[in-house]
Amino acid sequence: MPSKNKIILSFDLDFTLINNKDGIINSFNYTISKFNLPRLKESEIVRMIGIPLTEMFQKITNIDSNDLVVTFREYYRTKGIYQATLLPGIREKLQELKENSFTLGVITSKKQEMADKVIDILGISHFFNYIIGDGKIMKSKLDPNLINYLKKEYPEYYFVIIGDHPKDRALAENLKAPFIGVLTGNHSAEELRLNSSTKTLILSSVKELHPNIIYSLI
Fold it and tell me: What strands, in cross-sheet order, belong to the sheet with 7-11?
């Protein structure tokens, strides 16, 4: 059994650690309004949270998604980012996991600058050994460069991936790591387990994480 300080718990951000629904929806609506695109139902926008912005916009229009992403980030950078809140019990759970000698990290589809900023605003940056967003290290969670980086930086560590989206499970599969899915997002337990090729456990939220649960997957 590996020691706790050789286990990395790598968290997704949106809907796993934070609730940034309002900030993302408002940024999205600002963008589609500026480009005179039809408004979507809130549920349709929320369903897309967790995938890269370019993919979000490609699902609704043929307009160059790069232009839409720039506009989205204009609003998010100045307003939307301040509308995020921690999910209930997250600060206490991160503190508990650190006190139990686990190494913690974040891997998110957010732009690196925005990921760093929102985590800093919410006062939880000191919990994490790394925060990786869309930037130099990776362009998406399934970027081979990300896998290579993690294996190079943490060669003797066991990874456990925690998130609310099927892409988090896909990351776990690529790392040959266990996956803990949480139901604080917009995907069901069935969706998070679907065709899984790695050890998968579903929890209601990160609050349910305990050392014995983590060890049971390794």
Answer: 130-134, 103-111, 7-11, 158-163, 179-182, 200-203
What per-residue confidence (pLDDT) applies to 2?
67
pLDDT in tens, 119-137: 999 999 999 999 999 998 9
Q: Taking a C-beta distance cutoff of 8 angstroms, is the pair 34, 130 a contact? A: no
Backbone angles phi, psi at 40, to 5 degrees: -100, 160
pLDDT score recorded for residue 52: 82
Please report the sign of the dihedral spanned by the C-alpha atoms of residue 158, residue 52, residue 207, residue 100.
Answer: positive
Domains of the chain: 4-19+85-216 (3.40.50.1000), 21-83 (1.10.150.240)
Q: Which residues of 113-130 are buried (b: 16+ CB within 10 A; e: fewer)?
A: ebbbbbbeebebeebbeb
- Residue 37 in tokens: 């695109």
Would you call 10 helix, strand, or coil by DSSP?
A: strand
Residue with tokens 């990351």: 171
The amino acid at residue 86 is L
Output the furthest CA–CA distance in the chain (Å, rounded). Answer: 57
pTM of the model: 0.88
Q: In which residue are the tokens 């000191």 written?
A: 126
Which pLDDT belongs to residue 1?
60
